[in-house]
Structures are given as structure tokens and as C-alpha cells.
Design a protein that fits this description.
Number of helices: 2
Oligomer: single chain
Number of strands: 7
Radius of gyration: 23 Å
């Protein structure tokens, strides 16, 4: 049981490190062109207008996904897997962050640091296994 747990933990460590390495080495260009932040506590309605029933209230500062612009005043949204409509004037577009690829020397240093962490992690797991057996 303990060995299975350690194997599971070591696989998780390795996968996590590889994912981090991919982001560091390849860079990340986040696309947020359809994401908005609410500027007030906002009603999410069943249709585009105040005559439609409020499905839920989206707290100020939460992020919503724009599905489509329905009119110049109303927008079709998704919030926590709930679809509805809200007034567009209470939303602020989420800025797109462009993370540039690090210089070659920096990538090499990052790669070396990750490999060192990976090796140390494997050594710790091996030592723990020997103590448990």
C-alpha cells in the first residue's frame, strides 16, 4: 500500500514538473478575448431584458464567459456552467496577458533547475522506499 502511494506521488511529481517545464520553455500566450469581470453584483437573467427572471446573482469581481452579443445593451454569458443574459455596461473585458518566451540562456537555466528538482525528488522517493522495506 505504501509503495503504491509513493509510486503515485512520484508520478504526480514528475507530471507536475513536466507541465511546469513545458510552460516555462514554450512560453504561454493566454487568450482571454471572451472573458469579462463583473463590476457590480450582477443579475444573470433568463433573457435579454429586465422583464426576464433572474437566474442567479454574479458577485462583483467574478469572471464570466461571453457566448455572444445579443444587443448593444445585453450579452449572452456563461457563469459557473449557468447560461443567461446580463447588461453589458456592468462588465469589463479581461485584459489579455502575453507572456513572452524567455531568452535561450534563461530557458537553459530553468531546464537545469527543473532537472535538479526532479533528480532530488526521485532520490528522496528511493530513500523513503528503502526505509519502508
Amino acid at each position: 500500500m505504501i509503495i503504491k502511494f509513493l509510486l503515485f506521488k512520484s508520478k504526480g511529481l514528475i507530471i507536475g514538473i513536466l507541465i511546469i517545464q513545458a510552460f516555462i520553455l514554450c512560453g504561454f500566450n493566454g487568450q482571454a478575448d471572451n472573458l469579462y469581470i463583473t463590476t457590480v453584483d450582477l443579475n444573470l437573467r433568463s433573457g435579454p431584458g429586465t422583464s426576464y427572471k433572474s437566474v442567479t446573482i454574479i458577485p462583483k469581481g467574478d469572471t464570466v464567459e461571453c457566448l455572444s452579443d445579443t444587443t448593444q445593451y445585453w450579452i449572452h454569458l456563461r457563469y459557473k456552467n449557468i447560461e443567461g443574459f446580463s447588461a453589458i455596461r456592468y462588465l469589463k473585458r479581461l485584459p489579455i496577458v502575453d507572456i513572452k518566451e524567455p531568452p535561450k540562456k534563461e530557458r537553459a537555466a530553468n531546464r537545469a533547475a527543473i532537472y535538479i528538482l526532479l533528480i532530488v525528488g526521485v532520490i528522496i522517493i528511493v530513500i523513503r522506499r528503502k526505509k519502508k522495506i
